Amino acid sequence: MSTPLIKVDDLSITYASEEGPLQALRHATLEARAGEAIGIVGESGCGKSTLASAMINLLARNARVTSGGVVFGGRDILSASEAEKRRLRGRHIAMIFQDPMTSFNPVLTIGEQLVDFQDQREGLSKSEKRQQAAAMLKRVGISDPVRCLDRFVHELSGGMRQRAAIAAALLMTPDVLVADEPTTALDVTMEAQIIHLLRELRRDYNGAIVIVTHHLGVVGELCDRVYVMYAGEVVEEGSTDDVYHNPRHPYTQALIACDPANLHDQTPVLPTIPGRLPDLVKPPAGCSFAARCARATQHCRTIAPAHVMVGPRHLARCHEALS
Amino acid sequence: MSALYDVDNVSLDLAGPAAGLQRLLPGTAPRLTILSSLSLSIAPGEMLGLVGESGSGKSTLARAMMGLVGITGGTLSFEGKPVKSRADFVKVRQGAALMFQDAVASLSPRRKVAAQIVEPFEINGVALPEGAQTAVAMLERVGLAPALAQRFPHELSGGQARRVSVARALALNPRLVIADEPTAGLDVSVQAEILNLMSGLRRDLGLSFLIITHNLAVVRHVTDRVAVLYLGRMAEWGPTREVFARPLHPYTRSLIAAEPQADPRKRRADLALKGEIPSVLARPSGCEFHTRCPFARPRCATEEPQPRMITPDRMVRCHFAEETRTETQGGNHGTDLEH
């Protein structure tokens, strides 16, 4: 088995807030190998965006790393110098954002921006860079790439914009591609097309793809492995098939149960997850899900569970995972 | 059973962009069809789903039903009475409420929740039913803590803002609530809470709901009937269970096939629907879906399909609904509807 291309190792991040440091990410560990697509799922506030921004080294100014790091190319990229961080971003690790409308500059054409993104590529003239950009637009399914180069972002439809954003991210053939909610802003038919495109690109792209989403459907369609996050922690990880068919953490089970997409018959009442996320300024001493978990015992409320191996490459952070 | 809200043969067109001489001669500019010959009725206590891609006219229909945009053909009637004049729509807005798509944006950022949810009473000159306690009582009805009354919209979570808009919609005890994308952007657990809240209100108060969404899982789960809109025309409607089990229109079938599957064993091999919804500026001739339809034949490009009732409660607008269904599903399943 190949070694991981990128590894998040025991990473903890806090944000300065009025009430004190908010522990947005606590001892998160994950890895992505070449040719692999991993998914990071969880609901709002679970830390998945913090994790994604750490992987691309775009942490907010009030963020502080309190443990661990992100290892890429044999070293911790979070402690790299600003110049090195710039060199890594785009060329080695690229990102597709949720809303391509705001990730493109509205007053420059798509072509001008796609040429700019190749700034670090040496030995290519401007017109060659433009040709590269057109070729990449064609690759992501834009039928008239030359015309698209002269368009502004507002002139493109939602699906075209997301295709252009994917083209922008792939221009420098990065080793790691991080996509933050790549289909959330799209219709179901456009979503299917973008999923189809990402799956197609996977075949001839030998990097690692990291998909951050709250939509289990996107994970099911695209990812080999999945990391489920809750309250800043990775609570379960495993192959997409194992986690969907044999979820061992109560939060994963609840997350799958309350999505009507997974129910075949109508029920008068959908399952929900009662209660709220814990306050991350003062996270609970025991299991962070204990207050919302039907199976929680006194043990769960006082002692934080460790990762329990429930199968090959399948872990769950729950005292009861094996029972 | 008489309909609560009846939409009969409704059309809406707008003046298109004028070119050349058309600019000088008013009335000669081409008309753009936004909604065309739409018929739909909502029964008391019914939950009806309205689905289709962005640009299919779902929200426009909702706005037309509330009198926020004028229709140019057909008739609307609410509780058996025709709705035409401004005064008629004022009555409609007392008996039917619209929940807008973006719950946070539909609240004023500068006013507290308490002041905003009692606005329907002020606008309609109705005394507050429980005086100063009205706002708190309304919040309790949708499961929110009284303390939220003193918050500003930016201090609410997505789910709380959605509940506030449900509370506001319920203010005047409407018979119908039109909910435009009621769960868009919510986490699945919060989405389930909002859907449970709406189902509960329907059960306890006998409310009707028109749920506009492009989330098919939501429609499949909570609605009794579903109507499918494409480019301002009705493609198909019928009982939700039957439409999902045996879609008649190729567009419905494509939409269902496009839904991402959480189960990796059910991954789709290929693409259900290619291309994008055409612009109303370039509406295809004949059947407007023929440009993307996997079953399109020459007749589809020239002749507009008429609405056909396949069973007493299922309508489809497709020349070849019966044939395309057997083509994709095999003959065995095709017979149980034609009785």
Detailed description of the structure:
- With 323 residues, chain A is of the alpha/beta class.
- Chain A contains 12 helices and 12 strands.
- Chain A has helices at residues 48-55, 82-88, 100-103, 110-116, 126-139, 145-149, 158-170, 188-204, 216-222, 240-245, 250-257, 298-302, and strands spanning 4-15, 22-33, 37-41, 63-72, 75-76, 93-96, 176-180, 208-213, 225-230, 233-239, 308-311, 314-316.
- In chain A, the strands form 2 sheets. Chain A has an 8-stranded mixed sheet, with helices on both faces. Chain A has a 4-stranded antiparallel sheet with strand order 2-1-4-5, with helices on one face.
- The two termini of chain A are 30 Å apart.
- Chain B is α/β, with parallel strands linked by helices.
- Chain B has a domain at 247-339.
- Chain B has 12 helices and 12 strands.
- In chain B, the strands form 2 sheets. An 8-stranded mixed sheet of chain B has the order 6-7-8-3-9-10-12-11, with helices on both faces. In chain B, strands 2-1-4-5 form a 4-stranded antiparallel sheet.
- The longest helix of chain B is centred in the middle third of the chain and has 18 residues, at 188-205.
- Chains A and B meet through α8, α9, α10 and α11 of A and α7, α8 and α10 of B.
Class of secondary structure makeup of chain B: alpha/beta
Average pLDDT metric of chain B: 88
Element order, helices and strands of chain B? EEEHEEHEHHHHEHEHEEHHHEEH
Low-confidence parts of chain B: 329-339
Q: Largest interface, with Cβ-Cβ < 8 Å?
A: A-B, 45 and 46 residues
CATH fold call of the largest domain in chain A: Rossmann fold
- Beta-strand percentage of chain A? 15-25%
Largest sheet of chain B: 8 strands, mixed
Radius of gyration of chain A: 21 Å
Q: Oligomeric status of the shown chains?
A: heterodimer
In sequence order, what are the helices and strands of chain A, one letter per element?
EEEHEEHEHHHHHEHEHEEHHHEE
Query: How many domains of chain A?
Result: 2
Inertia-based shape of chain A: globular
DSSP summary: helix tally of chain B: 12
